[in-house]
Design brief:
This protein is an alpha+beta fold and about 220 residues long. Helix content is about 25%, strand content about 15%. A two-stranded antiparallel sheet has the order 1-2. The N terminus is likely disordered.
Length: about 220
């Protein structure tokens, strides 16, 4: 006998049909994208698309009289099939170049391509980041560095290097440069208040009564 359908196996060893109420209560977690597809929403209309390009030198992104930014806009529209006029690109300058990990990774890349020693280039980037106000920094360069030899005896060129830059941003109450909330181990030292020194000397007697001011004596008259 062939039995079809969901079944459970109790301790007695006999197959029983799975209760429908319990099957309905089993919740399945799906993502929003799959939920929209399951509901029948396969397509969404895009009215406007805004992209901000953060760069240390915005003039290079804009180009002469805005020519390069228009070329980039046309390339994005053609690549993703957007209608003309629905995509806008803006170039914004990075507020603090020393606190941007992407900008410092690019700076380190150009230094290494220029032939600068790896250790010297990394220390230069690290010093610039810490002088910009960062709380911490980590620079990792992986690959066949200068001074290292390949496994085989054939002399190889330097090859591909991997660059990683991690920056710990400082605490900023405004939230522009770093996080708004300070770290739990942050210790703030409050400056003591200035003591106001008395202008006239004051004497005090411990354990005794304060001295009463002397009463003026009458002057005898002849």
């Amino acid at each position: 006998q062939v039995v079809k359908g969901p079944y459970i196996l109790p301790r007695a060893g006999r197959l029983l049909p799975f209760p429908g109420a319990a099957r309905r209560k089993m919740a399945v977690q799906i993502s929003k994208k799959r939920k929209f597809v399951a509901d029948g929403i396969f397509k969404a209309e895009l009215n406007e698309f805004l992209t901000l390009i953060l760069a240390t030198r915005t003039q290079n992104v804009l180009g002469e009289k805005g020519r390069r930014i228009r070329e980039l806009t046309a390339v994005v529209q053609k690549r993703f099939g957007f209608p003309e006029g629905s995509v806008e690109l803006y170039a914004e300058k990075v507020a603090t170049r020393g606190l941007c990990a992407i900008a410092q990774a690019e700076s380190l890349r150009y230094k290494l391509l220029g032939g600068l020693a790896v250790r010297r280039a990394c220390y230069g980037v690290l010093r610039f980041i810490m002088e910009s106000g960062a709380k911490g920094c980590e620079v990792v360069v992986s690959g066949k560095l200068r001074g290292q030899r390949a496994k085989s005896m054939v002399l190889l060129r330097q090859g591909v290097l991997g660059i990683k830059v991690k920056i710990m941003l400082p605490w900023d109450p405004s939230g522009k440069i770093g996080p708004k909330k300070p770290l739990p181990d942050h210790v703030s030292i409050v400056e003591p208040k200035e003591e106001i020194l008395p202008t006239t000397p004051i004497s005090e007697q411990k354990g005794g009564k304060p001295e009463q001011p002397a009463m003026p004596q009458p002057v005898p008259t002849a």
